[in-house]
Give the backbone structure.
Amino acid sequence: MNQTPGQLFVVATPIGNLEDLSARARRVLAEVAVIAAEDTRRTRQLLSSFQCDTPLIAVHEHNEAERVPVLCERLAAGEDVALVSDAGTPLISDPGYALVQACRRRGIRVVPVPGPSALLAALQASGLPTDRFAFEGFLPRKAGQRRERLAALAAEPRTLVFFESVHRIAATVADLATSFGAERPATLARELTKMHESVVSDSLGGLAAALRAGTIVERGEFVLVVAGNVEEQSGGLAEARRVYALLIEALPADAALKLTARITGVKRNALYAALRA
Ligand code: SAM
């Protein structure tokens, strides 16, 4: 007899405020046979807030590869499974990609149960353009890779969203100010939906100074939203690229760069970053 397969529910959970757990998320978490959770102790706390005792199985970045076949077997045998991460939306800088991919490949239905995510929460309060944006997750930790990534992003015209840990937030904002220019507008969102929530908009240089001075406290969780490169948006960089391409035929690179900046008004470091990207 052919067994009807179960469904994988990808369930978003609160990023701080328990009231953000949707009624549908509660129902699904209570009804499934098992919940695949990044940290079972943390998820058990969430479940106990609404008297739910669904069994849990740990699925995190270190064991996801071995847990995927086990969960797929259970799904194939007809059990429904929910996937949650510690907080927010699974797969957004969190485990779950391998499981979702495996389910889709096997024809197992993947059902999103949308809800909180620090990414959208920060963006929706940022006051920066939301019509187009790029999510960059965490920047590389190694200095060289980080510099390269930032140079590649300096000309990006869309709003950029970065996650960062409390240990690196000050260094990251300072690095961004250096790579994108201290004047670039940005918003630093801290402890979203929690008691000490704060959302501060300033230039990157201003935010770096506020972190140095302790006006923005280095405690809790942070999302940084950075305005896109407006010179690129207005076509300024495209024109600068054209001028540079002409000048470089007759001048050394340094002189061509300097003269292009003077002719077009595009900042030298923005042009340099765009040419390297
Ligand atoms: N999947 C999660 C989501 O959708 O929100 C994100 C997980 S990622 C491992 C954790 C990062 O998200 C933190 O380092 C921080 O950058 C951001 N974050 C999570 N909760 C936050 C909050 N309440 N306030 C600000 N940032 C938060």
Notes: The pocket of S-adenosylmethionine is lined by residues 15-16, 85, 87-89, 92-94, 117-119, 163-165, 189, 191-194, 221-223 (CB under 6 Å). The chain has a mean pLDDT of 94. The first strand starts at residue 7 and ends at 11. Strands lie at 7-11, 34-37, 56-58, 81-84, 109-113, 133-138, 159-164, 185-190, 198-203, 222-226.
